[in-house]
């Protein structure tokens, strides 16, 4: 392997350490304990794993964790009432409604019912607009984690050619906004993109957020490029269940200058950024200086 491994697990541990220090200071100097509420509707197994992990890490950094678990047949009105109660609770600084929601609910309506200043996922239309216009906002956790790893590796991203594969509201689009904010020349590719291999071959930075196991082979990667693999795909191989990304790690690592592994890359950074966003929300709520 020629590429430098970007160790998201170690980086996330560092971010959590900084969050824990900030939380300790908020408690000591201001008597504030940041609180994060996670709302889970239904029993999607992957969502249950994420919610458990978020709750555990929230407590580990010294914050309060509140979980609301609602049945899959909960009405939209009842879910909105839970969000409203959390919006009005001063001990709660961050609210996250775990997606996907059951089919009978309008996801946009629910997300936009969260108070924007408590929207630690950064999916509320106000935060999307603020990010798009370069104003202070809550930044979606997965793209924020990717950006932090890129800045850490490169220092400045100015002038670099970046290709984001995927245009979802939760990863692809905000990722592109953040890269543009850091003065990259950004291309957003998707399922209708023509000549995807050629588009990817131009990129100094490739962010793959597709949800197709090992779709990006090494020969699409420009020599020395930085590859951030957001994909989390569960596959069966050699009779075992394995997690792989959207990039074929082995062949891409031969050509890339730096690459994130799956698991241990973007995944751990996502939750670390959620915790960091919650501290930011708590500071803003009390008019205190935000973490850098
Ligand atoms: P979505 O399914 O919402 O979006 C996938 C995107 O990929 C779409 O824009 C789609 O294009 C595009 N796409 C699909 N097929 C192709 C193709 N053949 N060529 C080019 N583009 C294609 O997924 P998400 O953005 O929610 O997630 C993407 C991946 O990231 C998943 O594996 C998910 O599990 C993972 N993920 C990881 C997180 C983490 O913490 N590490 C957090 C969130 C997601 P079109 O719009 O045209 O359909």
TrEMBL record:
Domain Tetrahydrofolate dehydrogenase/cyclohydrolase NAD(P)-binding: 140-284
Family annotation (PROSITE patterns): THF_DHG_CYH_1, THF_DHG_CYH_2
Catalytic activity: (6R)-5,10-methenyltetrahydrofolate + H2O = (6R)-10-formyltetrahydrofolate + H(+); (6R)-5,10-methylene-5,6,7,8-tetrahydrofolate + NADP(+) = (6R)-5,10-methenyltetrahydrofolate + NADPH
Keywords: Amino-acid biosynthesis, Histidine biosynthesis, Hydrolase, Methionine biosynthesis, Multifunctional enzyme, NADP, One-carbon metabolism, Oxidoreductase, Purine biosynthesis
GO molecular function: methenyltetrahydrofolate cyclohydrolase activity; methylenetetrahydrofolate dehydrogenase (NADP+) activity
A Pfam family recorded for this sequence: THF_DHG_CYH_C
GO BP terms: L-histidine biosynthetic process; methionine biosynthetic process; purine nucleotide biosynthetic process; tetrahydrofolate interconversion
Family per similarity comment: Belongs to the tetrahydrofolate dehydrogenase/cyclohydrolase family.
Quaternary state and interactors: Homodimer.
Name under which the protein is recorded: Bifunctional protein FolD
Source organism (scientific name): Leisingera methylohalidivorans DSM 14336
Lineage, uppermost ranks: Bacteria, Pseudomonadati, Pseudomonadota, Alphaproteobacteria, Rhodobacterales
